Amino acid sequence: MLRASSYVEYIQPDMKIRASSLVYQDPATWGISRISHREPGNFTYIFDDSAGEGTCAYVIDTGIFVAHPDFEGRAEHLVNFSTDESDEDDYGHGTHVAGIIGSRTFGVAKKTQIYSVKVLDSTGRGSSSSIIAGIDFVARDAANRTCPRGTVVNISLGGRKDTAMDQAVAAAVASGVFIAVAAGNDGADARYFSPASEPSACTVGATAANDAMASWSNGGSFVDVLAPGVRITSLSIGGGTREDNGTSMATPHVTGLAAYLLSLQGGGTQGLCERIAEMGTKGVVQNLTQGTVNTLINNGALG
Known about the structure:
The active site is at 61 (charge relay system), 93 (charge relay system), 248 (charge relay system). By secondary structure, the chain is α/β, with parallel strands linked by helices. The protein has helices at 30-34, 93-102, 128-144, 163-174, 247-265, 272-279, and strands at 22-25, 45-48, 55-61, 75-80, 113-118, 150-155, 159-160, 178-182, 193-194, 202-207, 225-228, 232-235, 241-244, 281-282, 295-296. It has a 7-stranded parallel β-sheet, sandwiched between helices. α2 packs parallel to α5 (247-265).
């Protein structure tokens, strides 16, 4: 055998290598800019040109206005578990969230494929059974969909503690997808809310442009990381843009970052929330609530 030959020092596989370069988006919104710099006050988003390519991002929300040109044809509706007859986003929340994950102008992972799973109606409300159905659907669909670099899921919704919902999230994570969830906007401890309290999910609190934790953001030890969530501009239904606030806006920064890292580094979804936390900027967030981690997400583009 070749391995046994005295002329062979070692054997390694022939690896595929690609050119990599950083892209500078200038100007960019403060939120995506902040996650590519260690200091505040920048309006340039710096990212590797892999940009989430080869990943799939599911948005469990009010639907998505998939025809928005800023999605560049990468957004698709899959299923509707809400009480609305329309599959479209008639509220705007899901479109805004999806834009932060992966739109051309406002997105963190600008090449990810985006899939809409509608569970909330035109008023932004829905039942826990509809949300659980959406989570279960994603776990099944992702297992049969071609996403060579991995699958991420965004859940920018929640309510009071719901064991069945937490269990659905845990089962989906165990199936191999990454799930980021909103901590909530009650100014309370995230442990009392679902799916924010599910340990296997990556729970996200919100910060402002001055690096202060938002006063209304839920916090506590169940929050894994913090991300921009105040005065965030993204896409709106009908083809325009709008500004919004909430841990709902912070969460897709993390979902987009997860897709970005899967595309750039690989490594799978297991432990990805911990990897994101390790890469984060430590100790810069002010006005933290008791027990909340002082970790602001960062994509590592500048080290």
